[in-house]
Amino acid sequence: MSAVLEQGSERVGRGRNKAKQVKVARRLKYSGGGTDLDRLRRELGAGVSATASAADEDLAAEFGVGACDDDNADGLPGR
User: Fold this and answer.
1) DSSP helix/strand/coil, 7
2) Does some domain include residue 57?
3) Contact 34, 28 (CB under 8 A)
4) What are 5-44's pLDDT values in tens digits?
5) By three-state DSSP, how is residue 42 classified?
6) Which residues contact 77 (CB under 8 A, 6 or more apart)?
7) pTM over 0.70
8) What does the alpha-carbon distance between residue 11 and residue 9 come to, in Å, rounded to a whole number?
């Protein structure tokens, strides 16, 4: 049985399969938009910063931490 079948078939050779994946990837990469940014913001919860800030402040007060408790400006552990 041959590794490469007809073009309309789901089972195709590795080279053809990779070429199809590259074609789809390029189409997604270079497409001229079509992304609904408002919908994406809603899904990610980017518009609820006031509620998130209040929750963060409550957690900070509960655990006794501030915005910049460590001595390092970059926020990384001591070097």
Assistant:
1) coil
2) yes
3) no
4) 555 556 667 899 999 999 999 998 888 777 788 888 889 9
5) helix
6) 70
7) no
8) 5
